[in-house]
Specification:
Blueprint: E1 8-11, H1 15-26, E2 31-34, H2 57-69, E3 74-77, E4 80-88, E5 91-98, E6 120-122, E7 131-133, E8 135-136, E9 148-149, H3 156-165, E10 178-184, E11 186-189, E12 193-195, E13 212-214, H4 215-222, E14 243-250, H5 265-279, E15 284-289, H6 299-306, E16 311-315, E17 318-323, E18 330-335, E19 342-347, E20 349-354, E21 356-358, E22 386-388, H7 398-418
Parallel strand pairs: 1-2, 1-11, 2-3, 11-22, 13-20, 14-15, 14-20, 15-16
Antiparallel strand pairs: 4-5, 5-10, 6-7, 8-9, 12-21, 17-18, 18-19
Helix pairs in contact: 1-2, 1-7, 4-5
The protein binds flavin-adenine dinucleotide (FAD).
Length: 420
């Protein structure tokens, strides 16, 4: 037991942060876990299934949440960010800003209390593909399982309705942001990734044509808690998709966008093809790729799909996507680099396989860290006492993330135990 040592501060409550927090807490170290969203789980929770086992992400998540619940050494702050870190190895002071939830912890709410609300907000869990009420449960598996109120989206009329329909004291419209200061011995940064902004890919029609979606949107289209309750249908008219194109490396391995490979997008699309084929056995799929990158046993996903007569692979980088105005079908222009044919092919939906951008590309944490040219935390030159884990460090899958996070937890424990 090491309950007398200073805690470890973990910033980011995705699979990287949760893993690091649990590994450290389960060998007796106190942990403060700070997550900016209203719930833990990060991007993995927004997936329909995850490779290699193709199980719903909630399976592993439930186990982790059970471990967290059983462990009093982990203190969680959601809707929280770390705005200042001072001091040095073994003796950091961190200021944590906690945004108001406007819902008190003492009462349970349910959806019947939100039904009469008119005020809505874009549902960011579903990548903005639908709206939720201004008072909402972030998603079915949210932990903590607590409603959140989007105060800015709430009209005065709806505010009055809420105060009337919800149990007295459950809604506090005057709740304000608070700041707490903590003393910690080491810091683990696990702030993860965000999808590449497809607005930069105007030649591929994203944002212009409704039936051009991204790989992360495909995860939510397939999920039962998604905007279509799991139906893979066209955003423009709700028709079941019959003929889908996947555009690999959409903005990746491209000096004008993301020069690096995000390591998971090929496997992501192979997984998405399975989603479509399981839901519509007649659907035809074409994958346009530069190289298919799958490693180790994951290559079986690719080999299996090569056997599927409804799935074609075309080696070539898509130059442009246009839309037929009546049908809203998409036309792809691409040179097949094996046959040297210029293709001009029509599809009813297109999925752009976009890469991962570190959250730290847009903002820097308030601690002296080295970043590479793309904003990933440079793990080779770690500042003593501050360690990075998961996609904050490099694009990677869940399996690599959890190993990385275990190693970050160990480094943090060693730093505290040495009393650096
Ligand atoms: C389309 C697609 C499909 C994928 N499918 C799979 C798959 O099937 N199997 C697989 O193994 N991998 C898959 N991956 C990769 C997987 O998503 C990542 O490995 C995983 O999300 C990495 O977890 P993480 O915790 O590092 O980052 P994240 O999941 O991004 O979590 C980071 C957390 O930190 C929080 N955060 C960010 N900034 C702050 C801040 N300043 N303060 C506090 N909190 C903050 C975020 O809100 C988030 O909760 C896929 C990736 C893509 C793009």
């Amino acid at each position: 037991m090491n309950t007398n040592t200073k805690p470890i501060l973990v910033i980011g409550g995705g699979i990287a942060g949760i893993t690091a927090a649990l590994e450290a807490a389960e060998v007796g170290y106190n942990v403060i876990l700070v997550e900016k969203e209203a719930y833990l789980g990060g991007r993995v929770l927004r997936m329909y299934r995850y490779f290699p086992k193709m199980c719903p992400p909630t399976c592993g998540f439930e186990i982790n949440i059970r471990r967290i619940r059983q462990n009093p050494r982990i203190t969680i702050h959601t809707l929280a960010t770390v705005d200042e870190i001072s001091g040095n190895t073994g003796n950091f002071k961190a200021k944590i800003q906690i945004k108001p939830r406007y819902v008190t912890a003492n009462h349970s709410l349910d959806d019947s209390m939100t039904e009469s609300l008119v005020s809505e907000r874009a549902n960011d869990f579903n990548y903005g593909m639908n709206n939720s009420k201004a008072l909402y449960m972030p998603h079915d598996m949210a932990y903590p399982s607590a409603y959140v109120l989007d105060r800015e989206a709430l009209s005065d009329t709806d505010a009055a309705i809420l105060l009337e329909t919800c149990p007295p004291g459950s809604i506090d419209l005057d709740m304000s942001e608070k700041e707490i200061e903590v003393e910690v011995g080491a810091v683990i940064v696990a702030t993860g990734w965000q999808p590449y902004d497809v607005k930069n890919l105007d030649n591929l029609g994203s944002g212009l044509y409704p039936n051009v979606i991204t790989n992360v949107m495909m995860e939510r289209l397939a999920a039962s808690g998604g905007p279509t309750a799991g139906e893979i249908i066209r955003p423009s008219d709700g028709k079941k998709v019959e003929n889908v194109a996947f555009v690999q490396c959409a903005g990746s391995r491209d000096d004008k966008h993301l020069p690096y490979c995000s390591a998971v997008c090929c496997m992501g699309s192979l997984k998405h093809i399975r989603y479509i084929r399981e839901k519509n056995e007649n659907a035809k799929i074409t994958v346009f790729y530069i190289d298919i990158r799958t490693v180790g046993s994951e290559e079986k996903f690719y080999f299996d799909l090569l056997e599927d007569e409804n799935v074609s692979f075309v080696k070539g980088k898509v130059a442009a996507i246009s839309e037929e105005s009546d049908s809203k079908n998409l036309i792809l222009d691409v040179e097949d680099t094996i046959s040297h044919e210029n293709l001009h092919q029509g599809f009813d939906m297109v999925v752009l396989a976009t890469g991962m951008v570190p959250v730290t590309a847009d903002f820097k944490l308030p601690v002296d860290l080295k970043y590479d040219e793309y904003g990933f935390i440079d793990g080779t030159t770690e500042v003593n006492g501050v360690y990075a884990a998961g996609c904050a460090k490099h694009p990677c899958d869940v399996s690599t993330t959890t190993k990385d996070s275990t190693s970050a937890a160990l480094k943090a424990i060693q730093c505290i135990s040495r009393g650096d």
